UniProtKB/TrEMBL annotation:
It comes from the Bacteria. The keyword Zinc-finger does not apply. It comes from Alkalicoccobacillus murimartini. Pathway: Cofactor biosynthesis; adenosylcobalamin biosynthesis; adenosylcobalamin from cob(II)yrinate a,c-diamide: step 2/7. This is Corrinoid adenosyltransferase. Keywords: ATP-binding, Cobalamin biosynthesis, Nucleotide-binding, Transferase.
Length: 197
């Protein structure tokens, strides 16, 4: 079986509901989610053996990124059709964000992406997730058929990657590096002083 079809040679691609240009915003969104999934796979490979729980969480997220793509890949003609991404997935991300933040030292300023290779890879995931979020917002503006659950999920996902990137450095006993010309902008962390705020 050949993996190439030649159907895209004229700059078109098929989605559920018909063919669109390969530069269509919907295809841009799907491509960005695919790129993010690849980056998460790279992060999993980099962090293999470091933290089993984190690896399992990233695997779960890879499946859920496919769910996001599935929900966004078709031109909806049946508004009653159930989407795959739901409020439970978003709540799970929020819980994991809170728990990872609680195991890392408090911060007050922006930090530079980096530290260990695993943490740096997770920061790339965070950045690509933000780009996916921007493209999803544009898709919603242009087409108007984006489920709110997907928008919320991807928004929360970038926060998750920030939290676990910091946790990956902390677990490796590597300090985050604060932006030296920044000012205090954060009031969260695991210190009692910060929790009072």
């Amino acid at each position: 079986m050949k993996i190439y079809t030649k159907q895209g040679d004229q700059g078109k691609t098929s989605i559920v509901g018909g063919k669109v240009n390969k530069h269509d915003i919907r295809v841009e969104v799907l491509g960005t989610l695919d790129e993010l999934n690849c980056q998460v796979g790279l992060a999993r490979a980099e962090l293999a053996g470091v933290n089993g729980q984190l690896n399992e969480e990233l695997l779960k997220i890879q499946h859920e990124l496919f769910d996001c793509g599935s929900d966004l890949s078709s031109i909806r003609t049946n508004e009653s059709k159930e989407y795959k991404v739901n409020a439970e997935m978003i709540t799970w991300l929020e819980k994991r964000i809170d728990e990872w933040v609680d195991v890392t030292p408090p911060i007050k300023r922006f930090i530079l992406p980096g530290g260990t290779k695993g943490a740096a890879t997770l920061h790339v995931c965070r950045s690509v997730a933000r780009r996916a979020e921007r493209k999803i917002s544009l898709l919603h503006e242009e087409k108007g058929d984006v489920p709110q659950s997907v928008q919320a999920y991807v928004n929360r996902l970038s926060d998750y990657f920030f939290a676990v990137a910091r946790a990956a450095n902390h677990l490796a006993q590597t300090n985050d590096v604060e932006y030296i010309r920044g000012t205090d902008v954060f009031t969260f962390g695991n210190s009692e002083e910060n929790k009072k705020g």
